[in-house]
Design a protein that fits this description.
- This protein has about 210 residues and is mostly helical.
- The chain has one domain.
- About 50% of the residues lie in helices and about 0% in strands.
- It is built from five helices and two strands, in the order E-E-H-H-H-H-H.
- It has a two-stranded antiparallel sheet with strand order 1-2.
- The chain is elongated.
- Bound molecules: iron/sulfur cluster (2 copies).
- One iron/sulfur cluster (SF4) binds next to helix 5.
- The site of one iron/sulfur cluster has 11 residues, from loops.
Length: about 210
């Protein structure tokens, strides 16, 4: 069982809750699947997420200030609760005992209100996941486009760049080594998944 090393992240030398191995140091999967998270990974993710949130929030505020409150409530509800239920509860990290909150590279601090649910996301969960993402990311875009004052063109371009570059970096450096094989964005290779599932027997096969 994992024991916390310091206050922030799981001990990188101890197998995660779903893994049957006795130690991590000799594991070949270490470089191709990210079982343990770091402050550097979290900081990189938050840099793009917070920058996009500020620029997107600016666009909404300049369109209709009161709409910003609704977007912030939607943002927090989606990434703090809804996404956790439909997507993160399928992630091996969600199975970690000893904490009521996630300690990963993206939704750090979100509460674990449900049980670990190994296996694929249902069609309903995927639908909620994509609709929620589209609404949160798309709302600032619509606000910019409905308020085409010249000063906002720069902010609109910046928002599109932040979201676009953030997505590319996420796919390249996170989704390609993420242990949540249930996520529709996951791009871990089939052979690696097979080897990881053989060690993490509590996961259900969601190749
Ligand atoms: S698969 Fe298991 S042994 Fe290998 S790095 Fe992950 S937790 Fe450690
Ligand atoms: S799916 Fe990603 S964001 Fe969710 S718990 Fe797993 S690593 Fe964290």
């Amino acid at each position: 069982m994992q024991v916390m090393k310091g206050p922030l992240f799981l001990d990188p030398d101890t197998p995660i809750a779903t893994c049957t191995a006795s130690e991590c140091s000799s594991c070949d999967l270490r470089k191709v699947v990210n079982c343990h998270f770091s402050l550097k990974q979290l900081a990189r993710f938050l840099t793009f997420a917070i920058a996009a949130m500020i620029v997107g929030g600016y666009g909404i505020f300049m369109f209709q200030p009161w709409l910003l409150l609704g977007w912030v409530v939607g943002f927090v509800s989606f990434f703090g609760l809804i996404e956790i239920r439909v997507m993160c509860s399928h992630c091996p990290h969600y199975a970690e005992p000893g904490s009521k909150n996630l300690r990963c590279w993206a939704n750090y601090g979100s509460p674990r209100l449900w049980k670990y649910r190994p296996g694929p996301m249902s069609t309903g969960e995927k639908t909620i996941f994509f609709l929620g993402l589209a609404a949160i990311v798309g709302f600032p875009l619509v606000s910019f486009l409905l308020n085409p004052a010249r000063i906002h063109v720069f902010a609109l371009v910046l928002y599109v760049i932040l979201v676009g570059v953030g997505y590319v970096l996420l796919k390249k450096h996170y989704c390609s080594i993420c242990m949540n094989f249930a996520c529709p964005f996951n791009s871990v290779e089939a052979e690696v998944r097979k080897a990881f599932l053989a060690k993490n027997t509590r996961m259900k096969d969601d190749r």
